[in-house]
Structures are given as structure tokens and as C-alpha cells.
Amino acid sequence: MHGPGDVVHLQQGCSSASSCGAAIIAVTSGKGGVGKTNIAANLSLCMAMENQRVLLLDADMGLGNLDIVLNIQCRYNLMHAVSGVRSLDQVIQVGPAGVEIICGGSGVESLANLNNFQRQRLIEQLQSLQSRCDILLVDTGAGIHSTVIAFCLSADHTLVVTTPEPTAMTDAYAMIKVLAANHYAGRISLLVNMAQNLAEGRKIYRQIADVAGRFLNVAVYEAGILCRDECLVQAVRRREPVVQAFPRSQIAGALAAVSRRLTHTAYERTGEEGFFRKVVDWFF
Ligand SMILES: Nc1ncnc2c1ncn2[C@@H]1O[C@H](COP(=O)(O)OP(=O)(O)O)[C@@H](O)[C@H]1O
Ligand SMILES: [Mg+2]
User: Fold this and answer.
1) Is the pLDDT of residue 128 over 90?
2) pLDDT computed for residue 269 by the predictor
3) Which whole number is the average pLDDT over 143-160?
4) How many structural domains are present in the chain?
5) Of the ligands numbered here, which is closest to the C-alpha atom of 168?
6) Model pTM score
7) Ligand 1 pocket: which of 236, 251, 255 to mutate (most atoms <8 Å of CB)?
8) Using an 8 Å Cβ cutoff, are 38 and 69 in contact?
9) Which atom from ligand 1 is nearest to the alpha carbon of 142?
10) What is the extent of the structural domain holding 166?
11) Ligand 1 pocket, 31 CB below 6 A?
12) Measured between alpha carbons, how far is 179 from 152 in angstroms, rounded to an integer?
């Protein structure tokens, strides 16, 4: 186990070639509209600026909108790779700061309906993604659906996003509870977004972490606090990530701090079989 103060560089955790692929971070929430997509998009940029090779996977079925936040055009999505119409390379878009993006679309859903041959081919293709980047960030979408849970359970680190709203907090806790019930082997961190101030954000983090510790016997680490910030709203309107549109804003600084915390965390690999194999296996 690692304490909250541990700072170990990502690469140090590698014990064998197969475990040296990307660290997988799933960005999730119980409730929708809490800021996941903006957080995933902006964190990917911050990480790229820290010289990490980042791949962003939009695994939010139906409501995927990373392309809108990043102002890129997703001509192809994961489904084109699943069906074999396009190669995985053709499905990858390059966004700001060299961040690579794969739009999920209905392809994520199709993962559940593949025959053995298709599954095997896709897993092999997807595994290669894990070796071409340092960090794979997955925007899972909201809610306790099997696909969302599958992506989280397969990740090394799950970043649960909440806001101070009681419904968002309850749903964040429900998500943590499901991870605990499934004996999640990765690390769980909580990010409080749209706080009025840092004190309110910390109080909410502590409330959820305390209850999770007491009733679920699960450690929930503090990923950071993001305050409600008009700059982010304006950036969304401009279809530009806020760290790029307003690099000197308070929220850009806070996002950079969250990014540093994530990239400097040691990841205990949750297995040798690879992220995507686990994701696909969870569907069966
Ligand atoms: N820190 C923040 N300050 C102000 N508004 C925010 C903040 N985070 C998110 N929002 C608002 O919430 C909306 C939804 O965010 P989004 O990232 O799409 O959420 P999700 O992916 O969880 O559904 C944004 O378009 C923005 O208007
Ligand atoms: Mg979203």
C-alpha cells in the first residue's frame, strides 16, 4: 500500500516487460455532468506538457463528447476498428499538445458482442496501444453500468469525480462501493469539482473518504480540489480546453497540480494480462 504522501515515478513500478505498458487511469463518476470530460481532456494536456505520452479514450457511450471539448473531429471511432473497417492507427486522432485520442462511440458497446476471433484481434490491437503511451486516460461516462465498471475495474487507478451536490456525493460513494464489492485491486482517488472554495472541497473529500474507510474498508486518496470557475465555462464555449485557453487561471493551476499528483503516483499493476483483455473479459 502507498500512503498519500508517496511520490514515486511511474516507471519505477515496472517489474517485467509486459507490465511496463501505460498506466491506466479511469475517470468516472456516479452522477453525470460533474465535469469528467473536461477533467479528462485537460489532464491529458497537462500530462502531455509534463512530457508524458498520453492516449485519451472516450469510453462514454452515447454521451461521449471529448471531441467537442477538444474541438477535434472524430471521423472514426472504436467501432471502425472493432469491425475491421479501419486500422487502429486510422482511428487515432491527434489533438492539442500531441495527445492521441480515440473516440469510443458505439464501438464500446460492440465489445460485448464480438465473436472469439474478433475479440482476439481487437484485444491484440488494443494491447499495442498500451505500449505506445505512458498514460492511458479513459473517460468512462457516468453511472454504475457494467461497461463503466468494467473499465474502472481494469484500470490501475480510478479517479472518481464528484461535486458538492448531495446527489453527486451519494452517487460517487455508490461507485466506490461497487468497486469495493468487486475487490478492486487498483487505487481509488476522489476529485472534488465545482467546489465553492478549497475548504468546502476538502470537507467533502474527507466526508466521503471517512465513510469509505469506515464502512467499506477502502482507502480513498485525495486527487485534488477544483473550484467552480467561470474560465472553464468560457473555455467550453470556445471549444478549447481551459488549460490552453486560460493557462494562468486558478483552475488551470489546480488541474496541473492534479496531473502532477497522478503522474507521480506509483501504480501497483493490477495484473499482467493487460488492460483491454480485462475490459473485454468483464463483459462475459
Ligand atoms: N470547475 C468547473 N467550473 C465551472 N463549471 C464547470 C466546472 N466543471 C464542469 N463545469 C460545467 O459542467 C459542464 C459539464 O461538464 P462535463 O465535463 O461535460 O461533465 P461530465 O463529463 O461529467 O458529464 C461543463 O460544460 C461546464 O459548464
Ligand atoms: Mg462526459
Assistant:
1) no
2) 58
3) 89
4) 1
5) 1
6) 0.89
7) 236
8) yes
9) 22
10) 10-282
11) no
12) 8
